[in-house]
C-alpha cells in the first residue's frame, strides 16, 4: 500500500469547501443598526469642556480671602445637632490613662491595632526620608533578610551590560550595587572556606 509523503495538492473545490466550513463555524452577524457617529450624539466636547471650566468657581485669585469673611447666618452651630445637655466632668490624667489602657487591651483582644503616632504625617513624607537613619534601617533589614517584596531588587542577569549607562552610574544604581555586593560576599565566603582556587 502506497502512503503519500505529502498531502495532495489543494483543488479549487477544496478551497470553496473550507470557506463554507469557516463561514458555518463563525457566529452569524445579526441585523444590528450601524454605529452612529459619536460626534453627532455627544456634540463638540471641547467647546462644552471650555464652557464648563469658565462656569466653575475660582478657588485661587484676588477674592480668595472672601472665604474667610464673617457670615453670621452660617457662623453658628445647629443646636439640634449639638450634645450640650449632658454634663461631662473633667477627667484627670490618671483616669484618662486608665481608660486608654483599657481600650487598648480591648482592641488588642479584638485584633484591632490603633496607632496614632503618625496621624499628622502623610506617607509621602516618609518616602522622601533618605537620610542616614533610613539607609541604616534599610541596611539592617537587608542584613537580617527582612526586606519586603516591594523593596526587593530585581536580579541583574549580566552585570557587564550597563544598558547605556556609564560604568560609574551603573555601579551606583541599587540593582547592580546589590548584585556586586552579593557576588563579593560569595567570593569571600568561598575563598575563606578554601573552595575557590585562583590559578
UniProtKB/TrEMBL annotation:
Region feature Disordered, mapped onto this chain: 1-153
Acidic residues: compositionally biased ranges: 33-42, 50-60
InterPro entries: MCM2
One of the record's GO cellular component terms: MCM complex
Coiled coil stretches, renumbered: none
Compositional bias per record (Basic and acidic residues), positions renumbered to this chain: 66-78, 97-120
One BP annotation, GO: chromosome condensation
MF terms (GO), sorted A to Z: 3'-5' DNA helicase activity; ATP binding; DNA binding
Biased composition (Pro residues): 1-11
Pfam family, one: MCM2_N
Organism domain of life: Eukaryota
Protein name, per record: GD18526
Organism of origin: Drosophila simulans
Lineage, top ranks: Eukaryota, Metazoa, Ecdysozoa, Arthropoda, Hexapoda
Amino acid at each position: 500500500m502506497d502512503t503519500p509523503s505529502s498531502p495532495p495538492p489543494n483543488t479549487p473545490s477544496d478551497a470553496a469547501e473550507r470557506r463554507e466550513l469557516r463561514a458555518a463555524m463563525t457566529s452569524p452577524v445579526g441585523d444590528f443598526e450601524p454605529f452612529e457617529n459619536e460626534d453627532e450624539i455627544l456634540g463638540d466636547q471641547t467647546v462644552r469642556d471650555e464652557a464648563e471650566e469658565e462656569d466653575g468657581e475660582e478657588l485661587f485669585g484676588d477674592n480668595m480671602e472672601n472665604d474667610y469673611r464673617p457670615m453670621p447666618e452660617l457662623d453658628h452651630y445647629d443646636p439640634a445637632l449639638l450634645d450640650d445637655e449632658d454634663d461631662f466632668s473633667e477627667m484627670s490624667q490618671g483616669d484618662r490613662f486608665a481608660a486608654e489602657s483599657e481600650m487598648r487591651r480591648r482592641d488588642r483582644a479584638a485584633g484591632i491595632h490603633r496607632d496614632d503616632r503618625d496621624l499628622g504625617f502623610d506617607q509621602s513624607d516618609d518616602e522622601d526620608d533618605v537620610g542616614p537613619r533610613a539607609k541604616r534601617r534599610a541596611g539592617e533589614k537587608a542584613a537580617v533578610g527582612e526586606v519586603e517584596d516591594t523593596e526587593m531588587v530585581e536580579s541583574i542577569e549580566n552585570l557587564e551590560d550597563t544598558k547605556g549607562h556609564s560604568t560609574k552610574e551603573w555601579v551606583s544604581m541599587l540593582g547592580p550595587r546589590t548584585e556586586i555586593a552579593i557576588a563579593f560576599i560569595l567570593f569571600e565566603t568561598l575563598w575563606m572556606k578554601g573552595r575557590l582556587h585562583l590559578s
